[in-house]
Amino acid sequence: MNERRRLRSEDPSAALGHLFSALALRHRIDAVALSDDAGEVLASAGTIRPQRLADAGRKTALGDADAATDDVTGGADLYARAISVGDSTMIVTSLGGRVPRLHDTARAIARILR
């Protein structure tokens, strides 16, 4: 098996941080955040305050995007998608590019959180 990870952590918060930093770097995404269904940020990377990004993503995923969402993006493309991780619903939000193969990211999150 070819090990692609360079950074590892037994701490789930740190491991999620490594995952989202790698996603942002690998896919040239300006910012990316993972939040739970209550809107709490679990992991993030990038150029924008994580809670602002997560809030905008939650509104977008729920179909409630508004002018405040536009203020957060500064005109850049915002992508938000709800994913299932175990029994939980989480939202992955990205700014400036989308996270490809989101099902693989959901599986990685599930592995980290179990």
Name a few traits of the molecule.
single chain, four-stranded antiparallel β-sheet, 114 residues, Beta-Lactamase, alpha+beta
Description:
With 114 residues, the chain is α+β, with helices and mostly antiparallel strands. It has a single domain, classed as 2-Layer Sandwich (Beta-Lactamase). It has helices at residues 12-26, 50-61, 67-73, 102-113, and strands at 31-36, 41-46, 78-85, 88-95. A four-stranded antiparallel sheet has the order 2-1-4-3, with helices on both faces. Helix 1 (12-26) packs antiparallel against helix 4 (102-113) and helix 2 (50-61) packs across helix 3 (67-73). The longest helix is centred in the N-terminal third of the chain and has 15 residues, at 12-26. It starts with 11 loop residues before the first helix and ends with a helix.
Number of helices: 4
Structural class comes to alpha+beta
Strand order, largest beta sheet: 2-1-4-3
Helix fraction bin: 40-55%
* Secondary-structure element series: HEEHHEEH
- Note the gap between the termini: 22 Å
- CATH hierarchy, class: Alpha Beta
CATH fold topology: Beta-Lactamase
CATH architecture: 2-Layer Sandwich
Overall pLDDT: 90
User: Low-confidence stretches at least 5 residues in length (pLDDT < 50)?
Assistant: none
Q: Work out the radius of gyration.
A: 13 Å
Overall number of strands = 4
> Strand content of the residues, in percent?
15-25%
Sheet with most strands: 4 strands, antiparallel
Multimeric organization: single chain
Whole-number tally of structural domains: 1
CATH superfamily heading: Dynein light chain 2a, cytoplasmic
Q: What is the overall silhouette?
A: globular
